[in-house]
Amino acid sequence: MATETKKYKVVYDRENCIGAGACVLAYAERFAMNSKDDKADLLGGVKKGSNFELEFTLRELEEFKSAAQVCPVAVIKIFDVETGKEIL
Ligand code: SF4
What we know:
By secondary structure, this protein is α+β, with helices and mostly antiparallel strands. It has a single domain (about 5-80), classed as Alpha-Beta Plaits, CATH 3.30.70. Helices cover about 15% and strands about 35% of the residues. It has helices spanning about 20-25, 60-70, and strands spanning about 5-10, 30-35, 40, 45-50, 50-55, 75-80. The structure holds iron/sulfur cluster (SF4).
């Protein structure tokens, strides 16, 4: 599979977000604070069970990785869609 078409997936456990806002600073195009409950929303994310998920390509990988890295409660996880392996 060509690198540009390789798919990744972010899985966001919104229930356990503590509203620290670090993800918003890391990737404001995809994370925004919701003033109703002071948790972050994954923009474009689709609700799957208690998580929100979004598939994306290499173009956004570094940004999503930084958001995952700065989250103090590690509720943002990144997977390789093809292999199902957790990247971060
Ligand atoms: S960094 Fe983590 S805890 Fe903070 S708002 Fe984002 S998802 Fe929630």
